[in-house]
Design a protein that fits this description.
Blueprint lengths: L4 H12 L3 E5 L3 E9 L3 H10 L9 E6 L6 E8 L4 H10 E2 L2 E2 L5 H4 L2 H11 E4 L4 E7 L3 H13 L6 E5 L2 E6 L1 H11 L14
Antiparallel strand pairs: 1-2, 2-4, 3-4, 5-6, 7-8, 8-10, 9-10
Length: 196
């Protein structure tokens, strides 16, 4: 399956972010997207840009948490199973766990970073700093992406340990450089994740 550079960027950023690649058979995998009800347009944007992977329409779902009784409202869409996604599963998953692969430098583009940041980035306006949450990865993987952001994109940052894994921290001076790198790819809905 031939992918455009736009599609590759969206796909890589999505996989690093909120998406889940599910292995199906020896060579194939499928992509599952889930976003909260208020991010419906964002999920539809991903599906539209990766249309050759998807059939049908996204579904609206509600789930009640068994302990807190809080109702979660979200949209989900699951792709067809393909060898293209199977190859990406081999890169991004080891022993059933999502990882930041050793060849991340070759995969990361400004568009991929923008999509990853839309999924898992946060701008803390009081301190004028940004975070990119990496989730439950190993410190070595967090340091790997930190190094790539420094060397390939000239973004000074540091790795912080959080309750649920690690995050990349961008101090105030670097947030402007981050914004310059990704703002052309950011959807309007996510402008709040960068300084105004």
């Amino acid at each position: 399956m031939k992918l455009s550079s736009i599609q590759k960027g969206i796909l890589i950023g999505t996989i690093l972010g909120d998406a889940y690649l599910q292995k199906t058979g020896m060579q194939n995998a499928r992509l599952r997207l889930e976003h909260g009800a208020d991010q419906k347009d964002y999920l539809f944007w991903k599906v539209k840009n990766l249309s050759q992977f998807f059939q049908g329409k996204p579904k609206y779902l509600e789930r009640v948490h068994p302990r807190t009784k809080h109702t979660y409202r979200y949209w989900r869409h699951q792709s067809q199973s393909t060898p293209t996604l199977g190859k990406l599963h081999k890169i991004f998953y080891q022993k059933g766990k999502k990882i930041i692969p050793e060849n991340i430098a070759a995969l990361l583009t400004p568009r991929a970073i923008a999509v990853w940041y839309m999924d898992d980035g946060y701008y803390y306006s009081r301190d004028k700093c940004s975070y990119l949450y990496l989730g439950n990865v190993e410190r070595e993987e967090a340091e790997r992406v930190s190094l790539v952001l420094r060397q390939k994109f000239n973004l000074n940052n540091r790795v912080l340990a959080k309750k649920k894994g690690f995050a990349i921290y961008f101090p105030p001076g670097e947030v402007k450089k981050l914004a310059a790198l990704i703002q052309g790819y950011l959807l309007d809905y996510f402008r709040y994740k960068l300084p105004s």
